[in-house]
From TrEMBL:
ATP binds at residues 602-609. Residues 98-133 form the EF-hand domain. SMART domains: KISc. This is Kinesin-like protein. It comes from the Eukaryota.
Length: 1060
């Protein structure tokens, strides 16, 4: 590997104490010049083609500051692509957004001090990570002097991207992205590439061709001060107004120049932008969406609002758009570019009112890669409807939340109203449409007003700020939170499967075959003064499913993220308690004849080896060995091997001088993969085994890093093979993942870190593949990508009973590593091993059913024909038919949501149940019929504490109903489905009629019920698309049927009579 250039620590950039903020340039934008040519220079002082020395500029600009002296080097003369670029008018931008993100991700992974630049030592790490991936003659990173455009001894992102572009053009996109992914893994990068791509830009005004910036005037500041105390604004919005930075942008649009009044709010750490655009009218201006500013800033967005030409305090004649309307998308995109927003960043969320909505739609069609996935529009008007809009939204995995308030300027007869309402009916995932002054609106109207002298315009004026009335979006009730939640949603991965982000327990489907625990280690001396980033609590509102053993699960919170696991061990928990909860159930399964696996996962220094091996107090491995030897029957033999995987090579820890070990696939061997050539210790004497294990551990590779004084540099795998029947128990102490720039690994340690992270990446890929389709495996699982995953195949989606302990560090400076470990653990909770011990999820044990029936109560019907049944702290009004014998089948009817819905909504089915010899129960949920209180219509609230699912269970418990036939319509059908998912053993059959539900993937949890589900839809209902109904039926693996009263009546009667 070629040596890196020296570090020039005395350079001006190296002496700067921090990142400088960009200064506002008042001069006109500089003309474009050829790439590789500095201002006033065509040849560098040292004879480098296209180079420009520091002497040509005097000093280097601050990071993120525009500089006419910056140049993009044309690349190495060794490369034809590089030679072609030199002297050309424009360096070809051939890299896709994905490739740019890949290159930026490697840059950030190498940038040890996060300064936005790479120094000589870091360049060595780059070559270490990249040289083995692509041919040596492809890479040309060793000459820092040549690559460093501004000669400060540090290679910054613009220099890096120019060299990466050259390499990309040489090898092609596929090889380039694969190489960058390998480099990120080897360097321990744990930040998603898309996130890194967004971090590569800095928000703030920068002059560009056709746009120059200046500060707002004293009059602008006075107007802002009046707005900050406007009575119509919430106090939080007033506070945000006081943070606004007043700017003026001189923009060229066609043959005219305009002074555009702009306000921005820079949110520290933000990586997204919220753009607010007003409508058409003299009272319309940049304050239109001001009530939303505080929430969007709190959600991590920079804020941008501006007065369009002819409005507010921008130049132009009031309401006259003819001179610039055809260029309005250029105005939008130009302002964003002038604020540093990357064209391909996909980070701009838009709030558009009236004309502002049209400007957004045209800009979206022009540059879809600039915008995020979800946007909010109000009374959007556009002359020509963009036919490509559905395809664009679908490709982005996003959608629109559209509100309409009909008036003389925004009629329901308009093409926009018709197109949005049609899109809502046809593709509800792409467009949610609300007519706010139509029939039975879901929300109150949005529009209101504010008074602020100087903010708006007189109807006929060329003078800015001649009016005082402001058109304001003023959400009432919970509409503000509804809109903000929509606008800040994450992009759907279109066409790609999505792994779950929450744990199986959070979904209400705990996993017995692959249990996941978390252990938080105590703080160490290095962390004594560092705050903790971890909070632990019992899971609130937990209702254990049938068969759940032990205490309620625990929650662990890191930052704003929360996960629930079988158990989260605090730093005070003993080794004995960890073993009793984690190890003993796996040992019991192994003794009973199953394969088993115990392993620990986490960053280096998080306590994995202590958990697995222990010190004075033994860990999982010695305790499991002791117990296994004591529990095996006399005729069972025990054979033990102990190997380490170090730098992708196997080493026998029982016989370190043994020849090369190999791994072979052997279907006859339990687990499918066998390490051949390893010394096997045939002994059932626990003392002898533990002595040999302790001796072997001394041969294990370890070393000191910045993060851990005794870091394990290998994966240690202890395998106990038991006969009669043949099964294995794997006890695995994984080496820790690490970020090279934090651990300080270099030389041999760096090679170890690369090998460790590569094998852990393969492990992560296997786990992701096993749960990729929302908790279910994809077709191909890459077990063969690593020796580690081949050995552990039985434990990962195979036939072993597995327990994983995710070990985490509480210190705040390791928050990213801790969160990433917990994300891995959350995915792992969905792995389903086929141990053969899972019982029928829908079968209620006889003893449970009998106990429920004994405790059951008989409803007493009142004068109104309904019984009052206690549930969740109040009485629920229920219509009942309880004359049939006590052991008769029981049917529960579940009504829709809203006006007129009660327990009598499905009363036309009552007679069929009684005629077939069954009992029925038909509750009115809170806020319906005679039941007090209120219910939420949101599908995500169905299972919340005190919600309809909990109420339904309480009613079944009170009446002594073990299993019920559930018949639901609309919202009620959603309740039935969610109840069946959470309490599968309490449901015998399901009739789901025009179901209202959101998570169709979650419905697949009911797909094994087969003929137990009757699914009915009504495609003629304007609120229900046939496509949605068929998607539900597909997820349920149920036959799609159009609704017919006869079908429902006959099926319910058959179920009650016990017929198939």
């Amino acid at each position: 590997m070629a040596s890196a250039a020296r570090r020039r620590s005395g350079s001006p950039a190296a002496q700067r104490g921090g990142v400088q903020l960009p200064q506002l340039a008042m001069a006109p934008a500089a003309k474009a010049r050829p790439a590789g040519q500095a201002a006033g220079s065509s040849q560098g002082p040292r004879g480098r083609p296209g180079g420009a020395g520091a002497s040509s500029r005097g000093q280097s600009p601050g990071r993120g500051q525009p500089s006419s002296g910056r140049r993009s080097p044309g690349g190495s003369t060794r490369s034809p692509a590089g030679r072609a670029a030199q002297g050309s008018a424009q360096l070809p931008d051939s890299m896709t957004a994905e490739s740019k993100a890949s290159a930026q991700a490697v840059f950030r992974a190498i940038d040890a001090d996060a300064s936005g630049s790479i120094e000589a030592e870091e360049l060595i790490a780059a070559e270490s990570a990249l040289l083995d991936v692509l041919p040596v003659d492809t890479w040309d990173l060793s000459d820092l002097d040549r690559l460093d455009a501004n000669r400060d001894g540090r290679l910054d992102l613009s220099d890096w991207m120019c060299e990466m572009r050259r390499i990309h053009d040489t090898v092609g996109s596929r090889a380039f992205n694969a190489a960058c992914a390998s480099a990120c893994a080897a360097l321990g990068a744990q930040v998603p590439q898309a996130e890194l791509a967004q971090r590569a830009w800095r928000f703030g005004p920068v002059d560009r061709q056709g746009l120059t910036w200046s500060r707002g005037t004293a009059v602008d500041a006075a107007v802002d001060a009046r707005l900050s105390v406007a009575a119509s604004l919430r106090p939080e919005a007033q506070a945000i107004v006081r943070r606004m930075e007043p700017l003026k942008a001189k923009v060229s649009l066609g043959q005219y120049d305009w002074d555009v009044n702009v306000r921005i709010v820079q949110t520290p750490g933000a990586e997204r932008v919220a753009l607010f655009m007003h409508g058409h009218g003299g009272n319309c201006n940049l304050a239109c969406w001001a009530q939303f500013w505080p929430e969007m800033a709190a959600e991590g967005f920079h804020l941008v609002a501006f007065d369009s030409p002819g409005y507010g305090r921008s130049s132009g004649f009031t309401n006259q758009t003819i001179k610039w309307k055809q260029f309005d998308q250029d105005l939008v995109l130009g302002l964003l570019a002038g604020l540093g927003v990357p064209k391909g960043g996909g980070c701009v969320t838009v709030f558009g009112q009236c004309m502002g909505g049209a400007m957004f739609l045209r800009a979206l069609c022009r540059s879809p890669e600039t915008f995020a996935a979800f946007h909010v529009l109000h009374n959007c008007t556009i002359g020509t409807w963009p036919e490509q809009l559905p395809a664009l939204l679908k490709a982005k995995g996003g959608g629109l939340l559209v509100f309409w308030e009909a008036d003389a300027d925004h009629m329901r007869e308009s093409n926009v109203y018709k197109n949005f309402s049609a899109l809502h009916a046809k593709e509800p995932s792409l467009c949610t449409f609300h007519d706010l002054n139509g029939t039975s609106p879901a929300y109150p109207i949005l529009s209101s007003g504010a008074v602020c002298e100087g903010m708006s315009r007189a109807e006929q004026s060329e003078e800015p700020g001649t009016g005082s009335c402001c058109y304001l979006m003023d959400p009432q009730g919970d509409l503000l939170s509804v809109i903000v939640r929509f606008a800040t949603r994450s992009q759907r991965l279109v066409g790609l499967p999505q792994p779950p982000t929450e744990t199986a327990i959070q979904r209400g489907v705990p996993n017995k075959s692959f249990r996941v625990f978390v252990r938080v280690r105590p703080t160490i001396e290095r962390e004594a003064r560092i705050k903790s980033c971890v909070r632990i609590a019992k899971l609130q509102g937990w209702e254990p499913p049938e068969g759940w053993e032990g205490p309620p699960p625990d929650e662990i919170m890191v930052g704003r993220q929360t996960w629930a696991f079988d158990r989260v061990f605090s730093p005070e928990v003993t080794q004995d308690e960890v073993y009793s909860v984690v190890g003993q159930p796996v040992l019991a399964a192994v003794v009973a004849g199953l394969n088993g696996c115990l392993f620990a996962y986490g960053q280096t220094g998080s306590g994995k080896t202590f958990t697995m091996e222990g010190e004075a107090d033994p860990g999982l491995i010695p305790r499991a060995v002791m117990e296994l030897c004591s529990l095996l029957p006399p005729d069972a033999s025990l054979s033990t091997t102990y190997v380490q995987l170090y730098n992708d090579s196997l080493l026998d820890l029982f016989a370190p001088n043994q020849g090369d070990l190999r791994i072979e696939d052997d279907p006859a061997f339990a687990g499918g993969a066998l390490v051949t050539g390893a010394k096997a210790l045939d002994s059932r004497d626990p003392e002898q085994l533990l002595a040999m294990i302790a001796q072997g551990s001394r041969f294990r590779a370890s070393g000191k890093t910045n993060m851990n004084d005794a870091s394990s540099r290998s994966h240690a795998i202890l395998t106990l093979s038991i006969s009669r029947p043949q099964r294995v128990l794997h006890l695995v102490d994984l080496a820790g993942s690490e970020r090279v720039k934090k651990s300080g690994a270099e030389g041999g340690r760096l090679e170890e870190a690369i090998a460790i992270n590569s094998s852990l990446l393969a492990l992560g890929n296997v786990v992701s593949a096993l749960v990729e389709n929302d908790g279910r495996p994809r077709g191909h699982v890459p077990y063969r990508d690593s020796i580690l995953t081949r050995i552990l195949r039985a434990a990962l989606g195979g036939d072993a009973r597995t327990a994983l302990v995710a070990c985490v560090t509480p210190a705040e400076d390791s928050q990213d590593e801790t969160a990433n470990c917990l994300r891995f653990a959350a995915r792992a909770t969905h792995i389903r091993n086929d141990t053969g011990e899972e019982e029928d999820e829908t079968e209620l044990p006889d003893e449970v059913a009998e106990a429920l029936q004994e405790r059951g109560n008989r409803p007493v019907v009142g004068e109104d024909g309904a019984a009052k049944i206690p549930a969740c702290g109040f009485e629920v009004s229920c219509y009942v038919g309880w004359t049939a014998p006590a052991d008769a089948p029981r049917v529960v009817f579940l009504h829709h949501f809203g006006f007129g819905a009660t327990g009598l909504s499905l009363s036309w089915l009552f007679g069929s149940v009684e005629g077939a010899g069954g009992r029925y129960l038909s509750p009115s949920f809170p806020g319906h019929g005679a039941t007090p209180g209120a219910s939420s219509s949101k599908p995500e609230d169905l299972g919340k504490p005190g919600g309809p699912v909990e109420i339904l269970k309480a009613l079944l418990d009170w009446t002594g109903t073990g299993k019920a036939i559930l018949v639901g319509f609309d919202w009620g059908a959603g309740i039935a489905a969610e109840f069946a998912i959470r309490h599968p053993k309490r449901v015998k059959h399901l009739a789901l009629w025009c179901m209202s539900y959101r998570d169709e993937k979650r419905l697949e949890l009911l797909s094994k019920r087969g003929k137990d589900i009757l699914f009915l839809w009504d495609k003629n209902d304007l609120n229900r698309s046939e496509k949605k109904g068929r998607a539900f039926a597909k997820a349920l693996k149920a036959r799609y049927r159009e609704f017919d009263t006869t079908i429902l009546l006959l099926r319910v009667e058959k179920w009650v009579r016990g017929e198939a």
